[in-house]
What does this fold into?
Amino acid sequence: MYAHQVIDSFNDGTLCMPRNRGKLIELSINLLRKSIKYHIDDVENLMKLRVNDIKNHKKIFSENSIYYRIPYTTIWLDYSFKGLKTGILMISDERSDDIQLLFFDYVSEGHCWVCWPYNVVYRRSDSGFGVRVSEEDQADEDLENLVLAHASIADTFMLLLNCKNVAAEQIKAPEALNKKRRKNGKQEIFDYHVLNVVVPSTKQGYREQSEPLSHVRVHLCRGHFKEYTQEHPLFGKLTGLYWWQPHVRGQNKEGIVMKDYAIKTKEAV
It folds into this structure.
């Protein structure tokens, strides 16, 4: 929802960024263009729920750490908090399992977007996270608390993304407005997703076979967890929770699926 504003700000030179980070920001903007985008209207209630976790630093990116995965290589999450607009670019490194978070804020007084002078890196191997801060801000305790507050939103968001009863609904950008923006040389508004909690009508258990024709056409399969039990082990012997990376699957002779989809209960269809 706000991604096009950040890109416009970068293109016209009004994006405020830390010194000596121009190349990193340019790379980040390119990743932002390609990212899968999500929006949350207001995260104030989420902030209230996580206030104790923010005070206890160890609870951010440590509890339930096995579930901290993002289903796509790059995700953009933006939201508002007490009227302030914030965006987080989440970048997954498949080689190391690191997830890097870059933060952007809109400063209404200066009418500009600002790239924060630090980034958060979550490392699965350490069961925790590290905060990189520019030298001039290293001793700023208020800044550290702000980092933790927004990191807690990313923390909660990743958990929600991997819930089976949370579906992503795509919100299409208005074509008429995009046509005008193209004419004026502006970045087009992107489609984005919102998360909807779906209460299933029945509990779904193990299925011996996939639904007919469900995986025939070529399509992008988002990253997801699979749980294997003693009754139905992986390769006949492995049990536990496993992560499947995003991948393309299907047969191109049946065509290609290009659009996103959301899962709903039978009653909602």
